[in-house]
């Protein structure tokens, strides 16, 4: 039988017991709410062996608190205020934080009002045994006697804001505890004076601390508190925090990674909470978890659009709760995963620098309330970025219906801690989706390619003669001829891809009387026209590189230079920078000479023409001999290079056939063909680059502009090694580039010639990308170029389209005492800074080029699909190789089109992660199981499907052979 | 929802107003309110306040409703617009008000010894002055006191208490906040005989909780009964004292007169 009592209220308490407040209803009516509360004296302080407070069976705070803190040798308890929990929940949850915590009811209620997710975390924290938390119901405590002159129930005073009232309640609570302890443990005669622990108010609010100090309440800021906690500082010193660039996973929007130097594998960030609102490219600080908590990356494709399609763009209160639920769901953990696949796992604890820019997006049509074009009401909608690496952006706009089906530019403004999506605003519309102009511009914007036309200040730096500029006639006093060699009589020719306008290299070779061979590489003398520190130079440095799209070229230098004055066209005299070697017939370098020169190219070949000319045995002229000579040398050079361990890498390259110049409708795609002459040019360019690199490194050891390719970490190859071993029984030796090259040569499938290329492509992806660097900022043993197996390398041969080459030209000119080096090239920081930009632009340009090809492949496929639809020849199918497996799909590579695609299965499959196989039960013709493994050749049907929502044309692949996977 | 952000019963065992599960709110009885009535009482349960005035037994006004063997009980209720925060005006025909009146009538018909007053009527006017949960219980408790004050013979006290259940935890004497969130019922019991005269449920209550709450409410009725009896006794004592003063005064006057006569 329970005891039923009536709570009596003292009349004089009326001020404490009634609480009045006004509430505004949804309809705007104001309601006065009166609530009462019953104050009591039986609220326990929760400290062990307290003689005043009734003890309960629940966990108690230790009698003398935590005694290991430097600032409080007598022992202490912490009493955090609300903001500590709101802002530093991670700290409070950390296992390093061991002090007993007194949690006031005021604080808990405030947390609950401010953030439900944090409140739930706090509740969970209270339940942890190791945390020693006591919840003190300070708002209900009042006692009428003479011992305690202060009690903890607090009434809001006139003119006091609710926040101030709560702060005061927390201060009063802290003071009460301290008094309570001193009163319940009075000194007893004959015994030593008892040591009293302190209750420390933990608050980051300076105003609150000042008031507390005035009231003589012990207090501390969080930083002050934990910086003096030995354990935590040790944690930071032990290097658990790292910095790096955040990379989102394009297959799974709930996963990202950060590469830090301390680990060979990138640090994995799983789940939205651990990614902590980082966006692709941000510089973040991360904390790495204990090794037990490391996880393997997911092998599942999680698409943001389909997973989160039910999210409402209008912010709602419950969003916080749903985050918690949803976060748990899509993470089935593969139990059978080998431990070796586990990666360091961690979470983002801070964002050092945002990398936000304008993103090309589509409006998500499902997030629109009303799509009538006349609607001018402000709506909150989702903008889905084109890049899969980015989260959807929430934005408010009045023109949403009009923007539907357009490509638009959106920038991110902020990302609140409570929000699942960043918020942004509309910048401008680019045009209709799939119109070429919009696609092209969006591509350039997406990869941050500067594409504005050159300004007047820049064009003013060009020679005044314009198109009419010619090499002045030879004369001792003509400045253009100063220190220039006259190489006009030589049989120089250029070999380039068809349609090339910016010819920046030309070659010659001739036999010398002593039996050796003289070979020369002549590079357009861009530095003669582009002088340091003028507007044109600045613009070129900012652009960094020329960007090649399928149907457009974005020049680094104004077209007058690129396609005319610097272009080594045939039959005209041009200024050049020449590297001339004396080589033995075995292609050993006897002598190297660098000189500025004047040349007159005798012919501009395409690779094909040169090849035909060389192979045509009837042609016996100097020029053809020159090509043949170069070719034999190149073969020897290549053999030498390969013996030294250079890699023969492959990347998918395709060529788009355009219908006609005007419409530029692609009609088909084919793979690029490689000829002997390609290799010829390549070998001599490599040789020139290496020779120049050696020269400028010798002349300017601190500031030489070089290029290196770092050896890839072994861990990068682990997966490929494992796949090759398990599927084909082929070992892959990655101990050095030579060993890798050798074992790549052995990766042959007699039935499948493309297999070797496939493995090479996959190996290439395991590698790091090459980069420019300043010789003074890197130790000398790190100069090496892994792919080329050369100890030193630079870029010298394409100054028209690469800015680094322009710098190299200037340095080389100074090295041969042609002129003085501009001061900026003596400054290490300046060179470093310039190269940073160039590296970034270079990367972006490559991606833009690839994206452009992809877009045209898409268009071509669409055209092909339409053609086959009219001809009723069935679906477009292509052969493809499986290159990667996910839990619910496979990644295939269509070598003929140079594209990759994702095939997700609709039917039930068994995925064997250890053997990289998929078993599709009972799907064979006789009902037997069909097995698909990595490297298998399959046939996929390819179609371009328009995403109804984003209007984005998407290449969609479905399995066609060995089974037809469709519903 | 407001209720989402307030805990009904927290882990320390406290309700949102600082009471524990089985603690009733402060109760006050005031019998001196309305002099013009034959008996009145103003009862508060926490912030709920009800004023009941009783007139009668007196001659029945409406002939058609008079019963020849007993008195009729006529209950009229009104809820003051100022009793709630949103100040809603309820007319006399409002269903809730009619229901409240009907429930009070049904509760007291078996308790009032009506057969002692044939062809007469007893008027009970219930006015709800403030609401914070438990209006019915307050009205019933106030009516009991008012009837006693009016000198209407009752077979027993009627003591009403609201009980509800939060998850599996029963609690007594709900505030408006709790009432809006929990299944609850009001039980009117007669503590001396242990019988119930009213059980009212407006929400669905799980059958497993029902029995427990019913029992608890009965026990809580006994607690309230004690309180009521103390109040009634106090008042009776006052009345008796008043009577004795009156007696003494008249006696003294008589004696004075006698002295004068002598």
From TrEMBL, chain A:
Q: Where is this region: Disordered?
A: 298-341
Gene Ontology BP, a term:
rRNA catabolic process
Where is there biased composition of kind Basic and acidic residues?
A: 321-331
SUPFAM superfamilies the record matches: Nucleic acid-binding proteins, PIN domain-like
Instruction: Specify where it is mainly localized.
Output: nucleus
Keywords noted in UniProt: Exonuclease, Exosome, Hydrolase, Nuclease, Nucleus, RNA-binding, rRNA processing
Stored InterPro entries: Dis3_CSD2, NA-bd_OB-fold, PIN-like_dom_sf, PIN_dom, RNase_II/R, RNase_II/R_CS, RNR_Ribonuclease, Rrp44_CSD1
List, alphabetically, the CDD domains matched: PIN_Rrp44-like
Q: Which GO terms describe its cellular component?
A: cytoplasmic exosome (RNase complex); nuclear exosome (RNase complex)
SMART domains attached to this UniProt entry: PINc (SM00670), RNB (SM00955)
Q: Where in the cell does this protein reside? A: Nucleus
Which protein family is named in the record? Answer: Belongs to the RNR ribonuclease family.
Q: What is this protein called?
A: Ribosomal RNA-processing protein 44
**Naturally occurring in which organism (per UniProt):** Multifurca ochricompacta
UniProtKB/TrEMBL annotation, chain B:
Compartments, record wording = Cytoplasm; Nucleus, Nucleolus
List the GO terms this entry assigns under cellular component, sorted alphabetically: cytoplasmic exosome (RNase complex); nuclear exosome (RNase complex); nucleolus; ribosome
Q: Which SUPFAM superfamilies match?
A: Ribonuclease PH domain 2-like, Ribosomal protein S5 domain 2-like
Instruction: Tell me where the signal peptide lies.
Output: none
> Would you say which domain of life the source belongs to?
Eukaryota
Q: Which GO terms describe its molecular function?
A: RNA binding
What Pfam families does its record include?
A: RNase_PH, RNase_PH_C
Name all Exoribonuclease phosphorolytic domain ranges: 23-153, 156-219
GO annotation, biological process: nuclear mRNA surveillance; poly(A)-dependent snoRNA 3'-end processing; rRNA catabolic process; U4 snRNA 3'-end processing
Q: Does the keyword Signal apply?
A: no
UniProt xrefs under CDD domains: RNase_PH_RRP41
Q: Which UniProt keywords apply?
A: Cytoplasm, Exosome, Ribonucleoprotein, Ribosomal protein
Homology family: Belongs to the RNase PH family.
Q: How does it assemble?
A: Component of the RNA exosome complex. Specifically part of the catalytically inactive RNA exosome core complex (Exo-9) which may associate with the catalytic subunits RRP6 and DIS3 in cytoplasmic- and nuclear-specific RNA exosome complex forms. Exo-9 is formed by a hexameric base ring of RNase PH domain-containing subunits and a cap ring consisting of CSL4, RRP4 and RRP40.
Q: What is this protein called?
A: Ribosomal RNA-processing protein 41
State the organism named in the record: Multifurca ochricompacta
């Amino acid at each position: 039988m329970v005891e039923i009592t009536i709570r009596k209220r003292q009349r004089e308490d009326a001020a404490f017991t009634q609480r009045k407040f006004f509430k505004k209803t949804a309809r705007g009516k104001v309601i006065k709410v009166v609530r009462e509360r019953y104050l009591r004296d039986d609220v326990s302080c929760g400290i062990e062996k307290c003689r005043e407070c009734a003890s309960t069976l629940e966990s108690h705070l230790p009698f003398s608190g935590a005694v290991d803190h430097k600032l409080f040798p007598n022992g202490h308890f912490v009493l955090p205020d609300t903001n500590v929990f709101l802002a530093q929940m991670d700290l409070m949850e950390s296992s390093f934080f061991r002090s007993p915590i007194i949690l006031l009811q005021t604080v808990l209620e405030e947390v609950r009002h401010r953030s439900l997710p944090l409140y739930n975390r706090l509740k969970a924290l209270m339940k942890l045994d190791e945390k020693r938390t006591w919840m003190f119901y300070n708002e209900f405590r009042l006692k009428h006697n003479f011992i305690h002159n202060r009690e903890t129930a607090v009434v809001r005073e006139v003119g006091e804001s609710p926040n101030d009232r709560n702060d005061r309640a927390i201060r009063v609570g802290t003071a009460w505890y301290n008094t309570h302890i001193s009163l319940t443990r009075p000194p007893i005669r004959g015994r030593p004076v008892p040591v009293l622990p302190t209750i420390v108010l933990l608050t980051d609010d300076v105003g609150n601390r000042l008031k507390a100090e005035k009231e003589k309440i012990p207090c501390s800021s969080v930083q002050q508190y934990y910086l003096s906690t030995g354990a935590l500082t040790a944690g930071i010193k032990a290097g658990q925090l790292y910095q790096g660039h955040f990379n989102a996973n394009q297959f799974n929007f709930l996963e990202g990674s950060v590469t830090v130097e301390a680990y060979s594998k990138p640090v994995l960030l799983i789940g939205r909470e651990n990614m902590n609102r980082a966006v692709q490219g941000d510089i973040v600080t991360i904390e790495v978890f204990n090794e037990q908590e490391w996880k393997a990356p997911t092998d599942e494709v999680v698409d943001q659009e389909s997973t989160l399609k039910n999210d409402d763009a209008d912010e709602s209160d419950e969003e916080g709760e749903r985050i918690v639920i949803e976060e748990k769901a899509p993470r089935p953990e593969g139990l059978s995963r080998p431990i070796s696949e586990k990666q360091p796992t961690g979470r983002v604890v801070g964002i050092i620098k945002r990398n936000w820019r304008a993103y090309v997006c589509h409006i998500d049509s499902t997030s629109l309330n009303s799509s009538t074009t006349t609607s001018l009401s402000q709506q909150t909608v989702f903008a889905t970025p084109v890049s899969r690496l980015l989260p959807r952006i929430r934005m408010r706009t009045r023109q949403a219906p009009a923007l539907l089906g357009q490509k638009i530019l959106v920038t991110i403004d902020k990302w609140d801690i409570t929000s699942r999506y960043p918020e942004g605003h509309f910048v401008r519309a680019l045009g209709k989706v799939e119109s070429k102009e919009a696609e092209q511009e969006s591509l350039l914007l997406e990869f941050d390619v500067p594409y504005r036309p050159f300004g007047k200040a820049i064009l003013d730096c060009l020679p005044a003669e314009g198109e009419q500029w010619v090499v002045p006639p030879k004369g001792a006093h003509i400045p253009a001829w100063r220190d220039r060699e006259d190489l006009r009589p030589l049989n120089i020719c250029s070999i380039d891809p068809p349609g090339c306008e910016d010819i920046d290299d030309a070659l010659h070779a001739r036999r010398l009387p002593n039996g050796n061979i003289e070979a020369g590489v002549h590079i357009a003398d861009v530095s003669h026209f582009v002088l340091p520190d003028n507007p044109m130079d600045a613009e070129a440095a900012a652009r960094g590189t020329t960007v090649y799209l399928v149907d457009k070229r974005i020049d680094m230098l104004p077209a007058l230079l690129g396609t005319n004055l610097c272009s080594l066209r045939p039959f005209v005299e041009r200024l050049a920078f020449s590297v001339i070697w004396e080589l033995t017939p075995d292609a050993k370098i006897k002598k190297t000479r660098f000189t500025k020169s004047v040349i007159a190219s005798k012919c501009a070949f395409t690779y094909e023409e040169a090849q035909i000319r060389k192979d045509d045995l009837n042609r016996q002229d100097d020029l053809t001999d020159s090509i043949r000579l170069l070719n034999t040398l190149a073969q020897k050079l290549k053999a030498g290079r390969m013996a030294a361990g250079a890699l023969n890498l492959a990347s998918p390259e395709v060529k788009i056939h355009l219908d006609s110049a005007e419409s530029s409708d692609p009609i088909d795609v084919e793979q690029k063909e490689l000829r002997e002459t390609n290799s010829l040019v390549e070998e001599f360019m490599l040789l020139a680059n290496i020779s120049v690199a050696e020269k400028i490194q010798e002349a300017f050891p601190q500031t030489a502009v070089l290029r290196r390719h770092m050896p890839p970490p072994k861990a990068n190859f682990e997966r490929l090694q494992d796949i090759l071993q398990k599927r084909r029984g082929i070992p892959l030796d990655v101990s050095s580039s030579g060993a890798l090259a050798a074992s790549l040569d052995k990766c042959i499938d007699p039935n499948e010639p493309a297999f070797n290329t496939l493995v090479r492509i996959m190996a290439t992806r395991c590698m790091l990308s090459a980069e420019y660097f300043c010789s003074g900022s890197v130790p000398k043993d790190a100069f090496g170029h892994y792919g080329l197996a050369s100890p030193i390398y630079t870029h010298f041969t394409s100054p028209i389209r690469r800015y680094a080459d322009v710098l190299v030209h200037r340095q080389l000119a100074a090295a041969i005492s042609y002129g003085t080096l501009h001061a900026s090239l003596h400054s290490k920081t300046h060179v470093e800074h310039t190269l940073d930009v160039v590296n970034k632009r270079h990367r972006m340009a490559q991606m833009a080029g690839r994206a452009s090809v992809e877009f045209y492949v898409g268009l071509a496929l669409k055209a092909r699909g339409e053609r086959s639809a009219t001809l009723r020849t069935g679906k477009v199918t292509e052969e493809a190789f499986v290159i990667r497996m996910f839990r619910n799909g496979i990644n295939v590579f269509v070598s003929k089109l140079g594209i990759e695609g994702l095939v997700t299965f609709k039917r039930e499959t068994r995925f064997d992660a250890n053997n990289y196989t998929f078993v599709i039960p009972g799907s064979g013709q006789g009902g037997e199981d069909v097995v698909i493994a990595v490297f298998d050749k399959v046939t996929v049907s390819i179609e371009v499907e328009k995403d109804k929502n984003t209007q984005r044309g998407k290449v969609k692949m479905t399995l066609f052979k060995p089974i037809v996977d469709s519903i | 929802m407001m209720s989402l952000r307030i805990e009904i019963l927290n882990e320390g065992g406290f309700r949102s107003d600082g009471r524990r599960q089985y603690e009733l709110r402060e109760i006050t009885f005031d019998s001196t309110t309305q002099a013009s009535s034959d008996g009145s009482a103003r009862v508060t349960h926490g912030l709920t306040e009800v004023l009941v005035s009783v007139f009668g037994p007196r001659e029945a006004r409406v002939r058609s409703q008079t019963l020849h063997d007993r008195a009729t009980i006529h209950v009229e209720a009104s809820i003051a617009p100022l009793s709630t925060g949103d100040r809603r005006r309820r007319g006399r025909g409002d269903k809730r008000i009619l229901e409240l009146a009907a429930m009070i009538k049904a509760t007291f018909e078996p308790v009032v010894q009506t057969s002692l007053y044939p062809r007469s009527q007893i008027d009970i006017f219930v006015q709800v002055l403030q609401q914070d949960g438990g209006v019915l219980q307050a009205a019933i408790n106030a009516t009991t006191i008012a009837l006693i004050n009016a000198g209407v013979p009752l077979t027993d006290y009627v003591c009403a208490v609201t009980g509800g259940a939060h998850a599996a935890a029963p609690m007594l004497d709900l505030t408006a906040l709790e009432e809006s969130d929990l299944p609850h019922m009001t039980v009117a019991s007669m503590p001396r005989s242990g019988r119930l005269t009213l059980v009212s449920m407006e929400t669905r209550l799980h059958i497993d909780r029902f029995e427990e709450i019913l029992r608890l409410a009965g026990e809580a009725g006994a607690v309230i009964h004690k309180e009521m009896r103390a109040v009634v006794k106090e008042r009776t004592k006052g009345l008796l004292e008043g009577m004795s003063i009156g007696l003494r005064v008249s006696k003294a006057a008589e004696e004075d007169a006698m002295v004068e006569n002598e």
